Amino acid sequence: MVDIRQSEDRIIQQIEEAAVKIHKAREETESVIFGQQRVIEQSLITLLSGGHALLIGVPGLAKTSLVETLGAVLGLDAKRIQFTPDLMPSDIVGSEVLEESETGARSFRFIPGPVFTQLLMADEVNRASPKTQSALLQAMQEHHVTVAGESHELPSPFHVLATQNPLEQEGTYPLPEAQLDRFLLEINVDYPDEAAERQMLLATTGAERRKPSRVITPDELMTTQRLVREMPVGEKVVDAILRVVRAARPGTPDALPRINDLVVWGPGPRATQAMMLTIRARALLDGRLSPSIDDVAELAGPVLRHRMALSFSARAEDVSIDDVIGDLTELLN
Fold it and tell me: Which family does it belong to (predicted)?
């Protein structure tokens, strides 16, 4: 009994200490990226959960600056890849080159690609061919790449923040469902409000621009990621996760009646896992010791949005995926 109490006290102390540092990291990021508090929050939730995120937004909304700032604040080595139709898998993962030594002996040497980093920005990821996308998928899924039969481990931590333009579809390749499912969250990046854009305008067009400072280290980030998995979750919150996700699966006994008409395919078990991790991370980000049902409602959209497909009749009726998710979150009231 004493050991259990000591373990609980240890976790509480670690959560409180981690929450202070993460709050500082959030403030430091918001001092550089204006008017995107929700996007910053969900990006940090993704990293605290140890996952990857897909950022959806038109050009010019500071998605690239966000990744660079997060890399600086969290002390992560960050790189960027601009995805294009002619991008090859070797341009991402690396390749082997034939070298000749002074004695004339020849051997192959592996040259790592830009995926060998801790925070990778995959810019306009849907512009690359399916073959190149599959190379990124392996890296995201397995945290290693295979070149010429040899496996090469990626650095730890390893996170991908990919971007996608929701408007321009010419010359793009839709991401396969398997790859979409690998993204922990889909984050919508909207226009800033007038006050935030005014602040941005004044801060970014002067003689000097503020540079973010490092708040935590990669080792501290990985320690916090392990702590997130130790956070307790109440039985009612677990029930809420299962209720929302299972109700989104058409053709199943738990599906909402309306879902069968509006949704072609729904979220799999990875959605419940993503929800469990992200609600814990959100609680930690807010300095709370455990998540609530409100966290489930708040993160239902980012978790489920890319794990569901609307039917033809839904699109004909001008029903959006967010409308469907709104119906699902009504189950929590």
Answer: Belongs to the MoxR family.
Contact criterion met (CB below 8 Å) for 83 and 164: no
Q: Is 318 left (phi over 0), alpha (psi -120 to 50) or beta?
A: left
pLDDT in tens, 26-78: 999 998 898 899 999 999 999 999 999 999 988 878 888 899 999 999 999 99
Q: Which long-range contacts (CB under 8 A, 24 or more apart) does 173-178 make?
A: 173/85, 173/126, 173/127, 173/128, 173/129, 173/130, 173/133, 174/126, 175/54, 175/125, 175/126, 175/133, 176/130, 176/133, 176/137, 177/265, 177/309, 178/137
Give the amino acid at 176.
P
- Please report, for the chain, the start and end positions of each structural domain, with discontinuous segments joined by +: 15-229, 231-333
What are the tokens at 326?
A: 């709104």
Measured CA to CA, the distance from residue 105 to residue 185 in angstroms comes to 49
* β-bridge partners, 309: 265
Does residue 72 sit in helix, strand or coil? helix
Residues 144-181 have pLDDT tens digits of 888 877 888 999 999 999 998 876 666 678 887 878 88
CA distance 283 to 275: 12
The DSSP-derived string for 14-53 is HHHHHHHHHHHHHHHHHTTS-S-HHHHHHHHHHHHTT--E
DSSP element (H, E) containing 147 = strand 144-147
CATH superfamily assigned to domain 231-333: Magnesium chelatase subunit I, C-Terminal domain (1.10.8.80)
Q: Was domain 15-229 assigned CATH 3.30.565.10?
A: no
Q: Do 282 and 46 contact (CB within 8 A), yes or no?
A: no
Closest listed residue to residue 141, CA positions, set 150, 133, 149 = 133
Q: pTM value?
A: 0.92
Residue 43 to residue 302: CA distance in whole angstroms = 11
Largest CA distance in the chain: 75
Under DSSP, is residue 57 helix (H, G, I), strand (E, B) or coil? coil
- In the chain, the N- to C-terminal Cα span, in Å, equals 37
